[in-house]
Amino acid sequence: MSVSIDIAGLAPERIAVVPSPLAELGMALHALAEPAHHPGLQGWATSVSARLDPCLADRLCEADFLWRTAFPDVFTPSAGIAGRRTRPGATLTEELDLLDKLSDEQFVDAALEFTCQSTYASRTVSRLDDPRTHERALDLAAARGVHQVRFTQRLLDDPPAIRSWFRELLRECEEAFFSDVWARVQHQLAADARHKTDLLRRKGLGDALKAASTALSLDEAGRTITVDKIIDGATATADGDLVLIPTSMGWPHMWVLHRAGWQPVITYPVSSPGLTAPPSVEQLTLRMSALAHPVRMRLCRHLARGSYTTGELADAHGMSPPEISRHLSVLKKAGLITTRRQGRYVQHQLDLSVVSRLGGDFIEGVLR
Fold this sequence. Notes:
The protein has helices spanning 21-33, 42-51, 54-63, 65-68, 92-100, 104-111, 131-142, 146-157, 159-203, 205-212, 281-290, 294-305, 310-317, 321-333, 352-356, 358-367, and strands at 3-6, 15-17, 216-218, 224-227, 233-236, 242-247, 255-257, 265-269, 337-342, 345-350. 51% of the residues lie in helices and 12% in strands.
């Protein structure tokens, strides 16, 4: 499972690492709506929520489904501009002006990605013109609540009015709390962008991606970027650009804009309170699968207490050494046990440091 970006023929000068105040505001709103996703920001979220004007708080509640479960593409409007070569603006005002340049269809389609959508990257039917697609959007909104249904109906009936309302809401957020956030993080984001740009020029895209996140990789041919996520998706730069946006408030999320017809964008966290090299989705799957078998769970109970040979484990569990070896092989492949040789004996032991991180690794993997 992953999202792939075909970059065949992409010249280095068409790759940009650029901070985005609008994307960072989107991350801040998500952190306010889902503080459990961001343990390091819970104090900030509590403080901001406590001092919000009640009217603004009500309006944020009305629209929070836009950023609670997903990161809608309305927060990266530069990607939807014709030509697919536009970069994020330097100020929130510049980016809101880019938001105004999206067509009504683009704005509505991007704003309604608030639930699981199997057609995200390949939508060909207009939500504004097709009655069945219109009704489907309302059905999905109904599963989220009454406020969401009303908002979706207004959005479908009068996109310009909602766009104006949305722009004003973001302006009020800037005045209420985001100007302070941006003043604090913009220098860090600019420094990170300069560092990644320097790596890109000196060592190439592969090294720049690796420095951004271990979840990003470039194939040997330099034609495909793979983003390690628990979803499947694909896009291509074609004749457009590739944009990477650093975020200070985004961990553990990594967002990949792969909407058909839009410029590919990767939004990556610049810092993480967790591991510097979390396991890949494949590694995580191997570890969860390895522990799903009752025999291997019982083996782990022994191996957590000390190191044992295959023969000792076979005696303890009433199984043959070859059977035990097969189970140990699965645990070892998953990176859950270590082995060491003592003379002519090989002893196995559970790697407690790896097992103790499984919960956090799983959470980071599903939120990435």
